[in-house]
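Handout, section 3.2

Students often ask what a structure token actually looks like in practice. Rather than define it abstractly, here is a full record for Exocyst complex component SEC10-like isoform X1. The first block is the sequence as you would receive it.
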Amino acid sequence: MKESRDGTRGGRVSKSSSITSLPLMLDLDDFKGDFSFDALFGNLVNELLPSFQEEDADSSEAQSGTVGNDVLPSGHLRAPSDAAKFAQGLFSPLFPEVDALLSIFKDSCRELIDLRKQIDARLNNLKKEVSVQDSKHRKTLSELEKGVDGLFDSFARLDSRISSVGQTAAKIGDHLQSADSQRETASQTIELIKYLMEFNSSPGDLMELSPLFSDDSRVAEAASIAQKLRAFADEDVGRHGIAVPSVMGNATAGKGLEVAVANLQDYCNELENRLLTRFDAASQRRELSTMAQCAKILSQFNRGTSAMQHYVATRPMFIDVEIMNADARLVLGDQGSQASPSNVARGLSSVYKEITDTVRKEASTIMAVFPSPNEVMSILVQRVLEQRVTAVLDKVLVKPSLVNLPPVEKGGLLLYLRMLAVAYEKTQEFARDLRAVGCGDLDIEGLIESLFLSHIDEYPDNEQACLRQLYQAKMEELRAESHQQSESSGTIGRSKGASIASSQQQISVSVVTEFVQWNEEAISRCTLFSSQPATLATNVKAVFTCLLDQVSQYIRDGLERARDGLNDAAALRERFLLGTNISRRVAAAAASAAEAAAAAGESSFKTFMVAVQRCASSVAIVQQYFAKSISRLLLPVDGAHAASCEEMATAMSRAEGVALKGLQQCIETVMAEVERLLSTEQKATDYRSPDDGNAPDHRPTNACTRVVAYLSRVLEAAFTTLEGQNKQSFLTELGNRLHKGLLSHWQKFTFNPSGGLRLKRDIIEYGEFLRSFNAPTIDEKFELLGIMANVFIVAPESLSTLFEGTPASIRKDAQRFIQLRDDYKTAKLASKISSLWTSSS
């Protein structure tokens, strides 16, 4: 292969020289690196292919020259003969280098086979060498593992010995530390015993003590030693059960430590007083470092309680009387003037803000001085609430007596309750501000509740008494206004006076709204004072019951006053009833008085209808208030909501009872006037007009016209004031009474055919008016009356066909109508009707 490449680099050689350059030599290096078969093949054949390509090009040129010479004179080519073509095919091969290439390929195959064998041999040798090296490596690794295991064992033994040595050293250190501690304790004990003997030398003698106890620079050390000695001596005395006061006078130095206890107590008291004096002096000079040192030493005496209480007690806001007087003036204002809740609220806000600012300033000092600042803040805040706040509240909240209520002119119970609510709310805000400043572990909310405990315990009774007082005052005010208006109106007639009195004392929706506003304010106070849902529900139920009682009583009283007008009108009607044997002059006067009574009745009817309307509006206001504000507050207590609903229904039913009585009286009033109009306006000739040959009158009778006009006028109030089922029930009852009254009225007359037509026209007129009642049963009754009126119009012989197939009740009513015919006797209708009804049945 190398020779082939060298031959290529040496230039192009002929065919013979290319063949003689074999044999071809291949080397393993030819297959290393980036091996490419195409490159190998090209290197094998490129030496031969160029000569073949040149020969091919030469033969092509020769053929073209020949073709050029064979052109005929005529311009056509001369085709070579078949013999020439065959000869050329025999002596000129298509690919003359095939043999050379085959030889090269064969040599290449032999050399490649040899190379493969060499490679296989080398691979076998390498496998053997790898196997030998692998076994050596495994043997070396096994030996290394054994060595490593030995090292681990050695390290474990070394670690165990190190641990043992460390434990021994620690035990030795503990023993040394214990010995040192015991030595130090023994030394301190010796010192303490020496000091204890000094205190136990003689009663009340503190002059022979060591300089330690009189050196001001070593006060802290002296205090610590004194506390230790005192604890030891108290324990010894307690163990032996000896009372210290019994041996104070005659104790000797060998009977125990009673003398030491007494002397130590005296010394500790003297030392504590000395430190408190120094603390006060430093406090006046604002030397916080000295105050902190004294406070730290004093903390060893009863955990510093005396120092903390002494510091709080000496604050100016607790000892300056002028400050407390200023609080009262700021909250209540000038003496002699009645404070209002709004002014008290502003005053309390100012006082509480000033106290909060003072506490905040004191808090900064306490944090810098005392080792336990939270405990000092607890004492300070508690003192603030118990002294300054209590002093202000006692002047603001004067607890009233339920036996002798404060007069309404001076605010009554309402002023006290509003003051209580304002004070409670502002004090709660003040407590939150103090909590933000810091009050240690003090239960400030519980302390605030204790300040108002006596007031809140009696709050439900006071609230209900307040609502009752407001109601009574309002009723007195309304009565006074009514009386004043009556006096200003002068002397009036009885009927007019009754009407005016009723109008002046009508039910007012604004008054009921005022009741609800009182109750709403009371509920807000209930919510403020009742922290537990169950307590809140109980108080709310009691307060709402007061509203129900007030509204029910007010409505019933108003309806009763409206009924009084109806009763007065009825009395007037009874007084001026017309007799039979009276003169024309008396009859005219009586008729005029009856007209006045009718006018009073109409006025009282309208007045009562307005009262009923306002009663319904008042009930709706209460129901809406219950659903909006009360209902949700009663849910936490089982049965409270249902009980309140039942109480509300009971209260309203009492008012409904009065209203129903009044509505019944209204119907009586209307029917009385209808009967009066019918009796005075209905003439006998209306239904028995003479047969004078004139055309019958198809107009309603004058009585019918007057009655319908009266009903239209007076019932306009009922249509506009009554609503829903109340309206329907009232109109239905009135329609039934009118139907019954008309039947009774018509029974007094006899009818001829033209009168029957006139009656039927009246029935149509009444029926058309009564359709505005929207009462189907009433419409049916008047339709039936129209049918009944036909018995006066038809001929006697047609009566048999008029009621064929009708029920017996209708035939019975028809029989009563038939008896009113003017020809009832002359036409002998009694026997005919009897036989007719008998055959029909």
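Discussion prompt for tutorial groups: DSSP finds 30 helices and no strands in the chain. How would you have guessed this from the sequence alone?
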